[in-house]
Amino acid sequence: MMKELADYCNGSVSMGVRDRLNMVYVESCRSGNSMATLPDIGTAVAISQSVIGRAFLAACTPPEREAVLNQMKVKDPEAHRKFRPSIDKALEDIRARGFCASMGELRREIYAVGVPMRRTVDGEIVAFNCGVPAFMAKKGQLEEDLGPRLVAVVRNIEASLGLH
After folding, report:
1. 3-state secondary structure the chain
2. Does 164 map to a domain?
3. CATH code, 33
4. How confident is the model at residue 100 (pLDDT cuts 50, 70, 90)?
């Protein structure tokens, strides 16, 4: 399902889990004809700056989320201050639409959407993202097409794992 979406959008689809204040990619699929070279398995991205990190925060319980945000505030107060408004907007977007979007916030050349899994897998919170090269993205593509498609992929993965 991840590979099909990556091929469809000429981008990449990744799955990640938390490691301290980062999300680490544990699975990644990219389109065969994509210029996307990242992300590789093992790549770490900051929770505060990435859609996959913000999707992770949305899947946390309120106390878990507060704990992570407090760690951010202590360990990287500048990033916390800079990205907190984007984090809050992403949480609101996920509540409303099931996904959040970023127009090049983590890497200016990549536009991406993020979706949390609704249930943990063996106690781990898992989140997904789908990224496309910014120059290939069409107006409205993230909100109207890729976000809803990634939500559908994640819901299908949940169903296939019996997590409903």
Report:
1. CHHHHHHHHCCEEEEEEEECCEEEEEEEEECCCCCCCCCCCCCEEECCCCHHHHHHHHHCCHHHHHHHHHHHHHHCHHHHHHHHHHHHHHHHHHHHHCCEEEECCCCCCEEEEEEECCCCECCECEEEEEEEEHHHCCCCHHHHHHHHHHHHHHHHHHHHCCCC
2. no
3. 3.30.450.40
4. very high
